[in-house]
Amino acid sequence: MGDQLHEGTEALERADWAGARLAFEHVLDGGGSAGESVAAEGLGLALWFEGRIAEGIAWRERAVAGLVAQHRFDDAARVAVWVSDQHLIAGRPSAARGWLARAERAVEGIPTGTGHGWVAVGRAQQAESVEEQAAQAERAMRIGRESGAEDLEVFALSLLGQAELAAGHREPGLRLLEEAMVAATAGRVRNVHTLGDTYCALVTACAEAEEWERAVEWCERVDDFARSHQAAPLLGVCRTVHADVLIATGNWSEAEEALESALATHARAIPELSVPALASLAELRIHQGRLREAKQLLSGRQEHPSSLRALALLHVAEGRPHVAVSLLERGLSGTEGHAVRTTQLLAALVDATLAAGDLAAAEAATESLHRIAGESEMRLGSARADLAAARLALATGDRDAAAEHARRALRAFGAMAMPLDAALARLDLARAVMGGSPDLAREEVLAAQGVFRDLGASRELDAAARLLRELGGGTGPRPRNGGELTSREHEVLDLVALGMSNARIARALSISEKTAGHHVSRILMKLGVHNRAEAAAHAAGRGTGRGKA
């Protein structure tokens, strides 16, 4: 049995999940072995990495009981905290609290050791405030350092960096995260799941803080790790983060592919992890003017924190800003101390209250946004505060102040390579100067219009066209901008012109409905049109372009 246990452990270290599973199953089939709890823990880990999540959790739950029976209390606490976090991820907070309590009970009355450090990790993961998360992460890090448990120390370091960044302490947070990344890649973390958790904390912290450049760099490393270790759950998380980066930096076609890949991966591994990807895809659909699809993606997710902003944007787009205000205010009640999430929701609240005609509420939200941005070191928070102030000033008729804030927002978004947000700031600048400098306003609108067209941002393109009409410049040219249609896209366009739905197109061409939808999206973008009716009119009026010189 000892040889099989050793073989299983070595297989885990080299990411041979199938080999580890077989070795540990052999130990467990023998029964009565002193190494049974170790085998149960190892089998659970191998199954988790294979994407058999429920089975993996069940075996590690069984391992906790065995470790307690053997008086290996520190290890029992460590595994119980892992089980607790899995329940938390899966949206089972009561079970998560129960398993954390079991970890606490395991180390009750024994000298401070690594088990107490892992309990502090569990408390940090379930903390209700950023301050509590930071305090527990610091305790875990200190215990890890004092006991020589580098896995514990490095993972706690990543959690502390995550807390600092969430609180708006940009430079300290990033330094801690980068230190954790260096330690992780240098081989200081031996447990492969702890290493994966550390990587996951790093990329998600950067995505939540919208530090796009660092997120790109770290996603590449994490993606390499996930691929080499065949870690399906990590692949899904990494692709979601990468998609958020691609959306923010204007690479929407690639973002769609990354999100679809993430959703497919999560469906096989941990479906509960799919909510952020669904919310990101829904926001993209809203910008594209595909509101029905956005509503389907967000169906039944009204109470999930990751979905609140997307839901609010959808309600505003559908002409229900008061519903959006209610959702955002409810969400903000749970973000105290979390500067990043608070600024995200406050920026959306400014737009919703302005759409609802509540200038007093918009002013209060703008002031809060400026205060938090000023207290923190977040570049994006400051840019959002300026954009909100520009919109409030426009609503109150202070065009000089609106122009100044819009220019600052434009510079900031441009420096962060965020084309959609920069173009939106251009529109607000145009609105601010159109009375005194109509030619300058027209130039700003045309520049923004080009960005919206290239992105495929249909709703924003409509807004630019309306503003251009106010300036007496028509709606602007709508040339093809994304290249010529492929032969497959020509086929799809012909069927769109016949009035076929995506489902009928899919059946006609023997492709999936999802693939048909992607083709239609790219056709709309390439033709520079808003919807299927305009695409059909283009096909009828000009032909699909086949056979032309």
Report on the structure:
This protein is mainly α. Among the domains are: 164 residues, Tetratricopeptide repeat domain (Serine Threonine Protein Phosphatase 5, Tetratricopeptide repeat, Alpha Horseshoe), CATH 1.25.40; 56 residues, Winged helix-like DNA-binding domain superfamily/Winged helix DNA-binding domain (Arc Repressor Mutant, subunit A, Orthogonal Bundle), CATH 1.10.10.10. It is 77% helix and 0% strand. The protein has 29 helices and no strands. Helix 21 runs antiparallel to helix 22 and helix 22 packs antiparallel against helix 23. It is globular, with a radius of gyration of 26 Å. The N and C termini lie far apart (74 Å). 54% of the residues are buried.
Compose a concise summary of this entry.
With 549 residues, the chain is mainly alpha-helical. It is built from 29 helices and no strands. Helices cover 77% and strands 0% of the residues.
Task: Please outline the helices and strands.
Elements: H1 2-13, H2 17-30, H3 36-49, H4 53-69, H5 73-89, H6 93-106, H7 114-125, H8 130-147, H9 150-166, H10 170-185, H11 192-208, H12 212-228, H13 232-248, H14 252-268, H15 275-287, H16 291-298, H17 308-317, H18 321-332, H19 339-355, H20 359-375, H21 379-396, H22 399-415, H23 419-433, H24 438-455, H25 458-470, H26 487-497, H27 502-509, H28 513-527, H29 532-542
Helix pairs in contact: 1-2, 1-3, 2-3, 3-4, 4-5, 5-6, 5-7, 6-7, 7-8, 7-9, 8-9, 9-10, 9-11, 10-11, 11-12, 11-13, 12-13, 13-14, 13-15, 14-15, 15-16, 15-17, 16-17, 17-18, 17-19, 18-19, 19-20, 19-21, 20-21, 21-22, 21-23, 22-23, 23-24, 24-25, 26-28, 26-29, 27-28
